[in-house]
Amino acid sequence: MAIENVSDTARWVAVYRAMETARPDAIFRDPFADRLAGPRGHEILDGLPKERALAWPMIVRTAVFDEIILDAVRNKKTDLVVNLAAGLDARPWRLPLPPSLHWVDVDLPGILNYKTGMLQDEKPVCRYEAVTADLTDAAVRRELFSRLGAGSSRALVISEGLLVYLTPEQVAELAADLHAQPGFQEWLIDLASPQLLKRMTRTWGKSLPESAPFRFAPAESTEFFLPYGWREALFLSLWEESLRLNRTMKGARFWNLIGKLYPKRMRERFRRFSGLILLERT
Predict the structure, then answer these.
(1) pLDDT tens across 159-208, in order?
(2) End-to-end Cα, the chain, rounded Å
């Protein structure tokens, strides 16, 4: 079953969350994932190369993002979470968030209306708002950020699985528009290296629509964001986190031992192959 548009990737990733939830030793639980993925999500995944063997990066990303989000709302007085390209993420329903927290999901109408329709009988644990918008429309984006920023003293922005589909110019504009709001204090992202981008293109590129190729993987890593007002506050290697959470590829611990024999510069390059990153305002 071909992926028809970039929103279809949300169904694919939801299947991975459902797979993890079904495990007796699950590192997170998303009781809504299988419902949201639906039959189409499973059909999409079945049509992808090495589909289930490559679940671990998405599962690890979900678990680590959960940890960072909970830390922000519990320990940093974060009063607003803005989830850009939210897809089928169900954190406002499944995480132990404070009722006073304002959570805003932003995505295209097709996928976001589908999600809210599927969960219409479920109650979010916090103050939830769904905003249908095309984030590539600069005027719409800036108006939305201005409205949300005016009502928050400390916001966390999330863009999980989004930036890789944007051009460097689009990411730069997004970064600048986010920084224009003083209350937007932190930005949680995932970031690929150029080497990983090539691998992803070989593995999944032909399965994606021509309108949504993998694009963004800056050679300068998080330094890309410095001119737009954001610096790296926390970098977590996806590889290292997969070992910590025991959700990794077959033979990973052996390759991890081999890797320790490489020079320090090569080890650091491999460590930053794929990252889960918290940016903060400069």
Answers:
(1) 999 999 999 999 999 999 999 999 999 999 999 999 999 988 877 666 66
(2) 44
Task: Determine contact, residues 69/41, Cβ cutoff 8 Å.
Answer: no
Residue 168 belongs to domain with CATH number:
3.40.50.150
pLDDT digits (tens, 9 = 90+) for 85-140: 999 999 999 999 999 999 999 999 999 999 999 999 999 999 999 999 999 999 99
**Please, is 12 exposed, middle or buried when counting C-beta atoms within 10 Å of its C-beta (0-12, 13-18, 19+)?**
buried
pTM: 0.92
Whole domain around residue 156: which residue ranges?
Answer: 54-281
Q: Is residue 16 part of a domain?
A: no
Which neighbouring-strand residues pair with 156?
Answer: 81, 186
Give the sign of the dihedral formed by CA 90, CA 95, CA 99, CA 101. negative
Domain count, the chain: 1
In a domain, 23, yes or no: no
50 φ, ψ (degrees, to nearest 5): 55, 35
